[in-house]
Each structure stands twice: as C-alpha cells, then as structure tokens.
Design brief:
The chain is built from 22 helices and 3 strands. The protein has about 475 residues and is mainly α.
Length: about 475
C-alpha cells in the first residue's frame, strides 16, 4: 500500500478499530474505559461486550483489586443492571480501597493511574450501595490530590478533572498548551470532550480552542502514523478523529449541502459519503487502469466535490487528471456500491436505506441532487446552515442527557440545553428561526429528538420575543 493511501483517514480509522477489537479485555481498566467512551459517544462498539452474568461471577476478593474495581466501575456507570448482591460486593471492595494510602511515596496507587481513578470515581458515584463515609474519603483524596496531578501531563489531568467532577469536587480548569505543543492523545481527548460533553468543554474552556484542535489533529494524523499504545487512548483517538472527519465533510468547511425540496435525501447521501469517503479514494487508486472518460468537462466539475476528501484528494486528483489525458469514459465502482460516471453520479448505500442520486455535471457543482432534471447550481443559505448547526448541537446535548439521566422530563431537558449553550450561540441560533424552520428541523434530526428540539427553540423564540 502506498504512503498516500496509508495516510487516508479511513485507513487509520480502520486500523484503530481493529486494534481496539483485538486488544479488548473487559477486566482491563483501559478496555473498560474504551467501552465507556463508546457508550458516552452513542457509538457502536467494535467488540462484544460481556453479559451482566459474566461480570457478576467475579470472586468478591477480586473486587478488592483497584484495576478490577475500576473496570467494573465503568460498567456500572454505563448503565449495567447488576444485582444488588454484586453491587454490595463492589461497595465492599471500595471500602477496602478506602483503608489504603492514596498517595504512597512510590506513587504506586490507583490515584496516579488516571484511567483507574476515573473508573473508581464513576463507580462510586453510580453504585447505590456505596457507603457515605467511603465517598467522603474519595472526595477528600481528590480535593487534596489536585496539585499532585496538576504538574503532570494533560491526559492525566483531564481524566483527573472528570473523576473529581463526577463526585462533585471542582478542580481548576487546565491551561491548555498550544495545539501544536500537544501530543496526539491529548488532542484527541480534548476533541472528545468538545464533541460528546459540550457542557464540560465549556466549563473547562476547551470550546474556544476546538477549531484549532481540529486542524492540528487532522494535520498530525496525516503526517504521523497513528500508533495505539492501549485501548483507552485508541478509543478516544478513533472516536475523535472519526467525529472530526465526518463533521468536516458534512459541513463542507462550515457549510451543509442542502437541497431545497428534498434535503432529507441529500443529507442521507452526505452521511453515507462521510463514513465511506476513504473507500472511494482507495478504489480510484486500485482501479486507475480501468478509468475511462468521454467528457472532460464533466469530470472537472467533480473536483470541487471531491476536494472535501482532504488527504485522499491527492490520490483522486492524480488519477482523474491521468484519466482525462486518456480521453476515455469513466466507471468508478467501490466496494460499498458507489458508481460515478461521466453522465451520472449514482450511490446505493449498503444499508437498508438506499439513496440514488443522478446529476449531469456541466457547470460548477455545489451539491448533488437526487434525480434532478437539467443543470443545477445548489447553494446553502446562511440561515439554513445555522439552523442545521443548532439542531445538531441540541440533539447531541439531548443524547448526553439521555445517557446520564434517561428519565429526564421535558423541563429538565430544556434546562440542560439552556445551560450548555452559550448566550451568544443561542442568539445566533435564534436568528435562523425564519419561516419554515420547523419543517427543516424535521428533515435534519433523528425522529426521537425532533419534537423536543422544536419545543426548546420555540421556547427560546417566545422568551426572546
């Protein structure tokens, strides 16, 4: 495989996912942390999570070991329905931990192992059998331990902040170094917080740096091979990189491709392209000898669309240019069922939902329309873009609340979103509520979140009015 293809984000994502799958062991705190970040992100795990009964057959004495205590703590925080007797055994193991020295001179304790510290703290928060005196002990440990981790690396300190926050201990927000001074694990962790816990990201002061973090993370992944050291770091890097690349393509550098009249079809196409973009580039590379073009102008019009593929575009441009010189017709078929020809662009998703798109390219291409006759230039209005951004952000917040409080009522949901979104962003979102915005929301969001999102925006609109 060439260096260019090896730099494909898709290739790196696939490599990380295979690493996580091959190294998953639920008894490992690092694997348990990976399971937790997938859970918080609402993503499907690439490994098989054990049944509750498999975990509950652990011998009680093993719950006295800090790594096992942390691993099970992550499972408790992920909504596992363990029996009362097993939860009691976990609480007893936590009591034994509370009798030990948290800050030994050799630093050989759970406190100095951030993945274990967070898992134990999350378990203590979510286990109903934990004794109050033991929880007070942990709060005291985290209160006095802030300075002990403050001089360490950023990865350790951020996980420490999360551990403290989970049991209502407030640490000072970290002073982020410049993105170019951060290593790839630190960049990914900050991005993960921004993507899947916007409330924490704002409190920690991460949100204002997100754009630069995105650029640096993508640049680092292009120029430096992604080497996974353990499942905790691999999972955070995988989810953060995937999130960054998908948003980059979906927004097309802050612009959604929207089609008036049938934007739901186009959004489905974009989502499908976002998750399969690397396959197109690889198939260009592997099938270059079979490319044929009959209309050079139509192929040139593909380049503005393909330019969003970032690192993969180098491969695509080289092969398209080479093919254009050959004056042949084009047939590009990838393993996901995507076909591009000079006269049409057709995509059939391999999922249950299928999207078919056909479009003649004889002028500048700003989007791709489903079965549209004639030549079209499709562009995005600023208001529609802002509305899409508002809807997606509110949906992400609702998913986060759903994970931590599945029984939250409508008032609690509205309050949570209100707190998490900064006033200036709220004002900008309100500016997008023009005629027809409710129907647009229905096209943009997943069904379970449509009504509550409309209600929240309607409430803001009435209040501001």
């Amino acid at each position: 495989m060439t260096d260019a293809v090896a730099k494909s984000f898709g290739y790196q994502l696939n490599d990380l996912e295979q690493y996580i799958q091959a190294n998953y062991n639920w008894e490992s705190p690092e694997s348990a942390f990976a399971r937790y970040v997938y859970y918080r992100s609402g993503a499907t795990t690439p490994f098989t999570v054990p049944e509750d009964t498999v975990i509950q057959i652990l011998e009680p004495r093993r719950l006295q070991e800090a790594p096992i205590l942390a691993a099970v703590g992550y499972e408790i925080a992920s909504g596992r329905g363990f029996s009362e007797s097993f939860l009691e055994a976990w609480a007893n193991g936590f009591t034994r931990l509370a009798s030990r020295e948290a800050f030994p001179s050799d630093r050989a304790s759970f406190f100095f192992r951030p993945v274990e510290l967070l898992g134990i703290s999350l378990g203590a928060k979510n286990c109903p059998k934990v004794h109050q005196k033991d929880l007070i002990w942990l709060r005291e440990v985290l209160t006095s331990g802030e300075q002990k981790l403050g001089s360490g690396d950023l990865w350790t300190f951020i996980l420490g902040i999360y551990a403290a926050q989970s049991i209502s201990v407030n640490w000072k927000s970290p002073n982020l170094p410049l993105p170019e001074e951060m290593n790839i694990d630190e960049l990914a962790l900050v991005k993960w917080v921004c993507s899947f816990d916007s409330h924490a990201a704002q409190r920690f002061g991460f949100t204002q740096h997100e754009s630069e973090i995105d650029k640096t993370l993508l640049s680092r992944c292009i120029t430096t091979p992604t080497v996974a050291n353990d499942n905790s770091r691999a999972a955070v890097l995988y989810l953060s990189l995937k999130r960054t690349v998908i948003l980059l393509i979906q927004k097309s550098h802050e612009n959604y491709w929207l089609l008036s009249g049938s934007s739901s079809e186009l959004l489905s196409l974009i989502k499908s392209l976002s998750t399969r973009f690397h396959s197109v580039a690889q198939q260009f590379k592997f099938q270059k000898n079979s490319l044929e073009i009959t209309d050079g102008y139509s192929i040139k019009d593909l380049l503005p669309v393909l330019s969003q593929l970032r690192s993969d575009i180098d491969i695509v441009v080289d092969i398209v240019n080479e093919a254009m010189l050959q004056k042949c017709s084009t047939h590009i078929l990838n393993n996901q069922g995507t076909i591009i020809t000079a006269e049409s662009f057709t995509m059939n998703s391999n999922q249950n939902d299928s999207v078919e798109v056909q479009q003649n390219f004889h002028s500048s291409v700003y989007g791709v329309a489903g079965k549209v006759a004639g030549n079209q230039n499709i562009f995005v209005s600023e208001q529609r873009q802002t509305l899409a951004e508002a809807a997606q952000e509110i949906q992400e917040l609702l998913k986060q609340l759903e994970a931590s409080n599945p029984v939250a009522n409508e008032v609690q949901k509205a309050e949570f979103v209100q707190t998490a979104i900064a006033p200036e962003r709220k004002k900008r979102f309100l500016s997008a509520l023009n005629s027809g915005w409710k129907e647009a929301i229905k096209e943009i969001l997943d069904n379970p979140y449509v009504n509550v999102t409309i209600a929240i925006l309607e409430g803001w609109k009435n209040t501001s009015g």
